[in-house]
Amino acid sequence: MRRDWIYALLLLLPAMVLLMGFTHIPAIETVISSFFSTPHGRRPAHFVGIDNYLYLLEDDVFIRSCWNNLIYAAITIPASIIIALVMALFVHSRMAGLSFLRMAYFTPTVLPMIAVGNIWLFFFTPSFGLIDQIRALFDLPAQNWMGDPDTVLYTVLVVAVWKNAGFFMIFYLAALQTIPEPLREAAKLEGAGRWTFFRRVTLPLIMPTTLFILVNAIINSVRLIDHIFIMTLGGPNNASRLLLYHIYETAFEYWDTASASAMTVVILFVLSLLAIGQFFWLDRKVHYK
């Protein structure tokens, strides 16, 4: 029995070392750094307590980034999940060219986010972009989508949804393929329509997958910022600035590691609360068998 435990621990050891070295230890160091000032040259960091957190409450850029990220998450999370489910239902049916269609839906997932940002630049470029070219057919004026504070955040949203939906579709497609065929046949015999079967049978059976996708979508809403570097750099006037981009700029351009650490702890705290709430509240509504 002891040999089995040793064998299991040896198998887990590489993953445990990587997790400790690149996840848990840096997270603990970030929490500690958030209570100290930023060291400069020969001046070491000193303990400041919660001053870094109090400063965030007075930082207009941080508050604007939080608001932008809230809008970003509120739109990208449900949109990505709903579109992914619709695409999965569509490609789960029998039709000609199904393999090509699945590949087309999944292609954005394998593209680097930097490449995705460059692709969508051609769509949103004023006057010459594809969107404005289509608008010109209806005699509509050109629109500077990424230069207008009222529209720039939504251009970023579109890119994120386009990138994530295909990835989530794969999980939904795998879940749909596990639904037993006798259930469909029994539903037909009982006279249940497609909508009734979807609502009463399909949705409950794919709820574990939905919970998994929801957790990933929430994490992606604060993790994916590569397209911000390519498309907007957080502008104009911080209208598309997201939290992780603001943390990067604060830490590596302004070299204010104390404030960046405090913002990182805030994100980790919020994500932890959301994850706990999902697993303890939504998990009760999930049927695993």
3D structure, described in words:
The structure is a single chain. The chain is mainly α. The two termini are 31 Å apart. It has a single domain, classed as Orthogonal Bundle (MetI-like fold). α7 packs antiparallel against α10 and α10 packs antiparallel against α13. The radius of gyration is 23 Å and the shape is globular. 72% of the residues lie in helices and 0% in strands.
Features:
mainly alpha; ABC_transporter_permease; transport; about 0% strand; single chain; about 290 residues; globular; MetI-like fold
List the helices and strands and how they pair.
Blueprint: H1 2-33, H2 51-58, H3 60-91, H4 98-110, H5 113-124, H6 130-137, H7 152-176, H8 181-189, H9 194-205, H10 207-223, H11 226-231, H12 243-252, H13 257-281
Helix pairs in contact: 1-13, 2-13, 3-7, 3-10, 4-7, 7-10, 10-13, 12-13
How would you summarize this macromolecular structure in one to three sentences?
Helix content is about 70%, strand content about 0%.
Rg (C-alpha, Å):
23 Å
The residue fraction in helices comes out at over 70%
Structural class: mainly alpha
Residues in β-strands, percent: under 5%
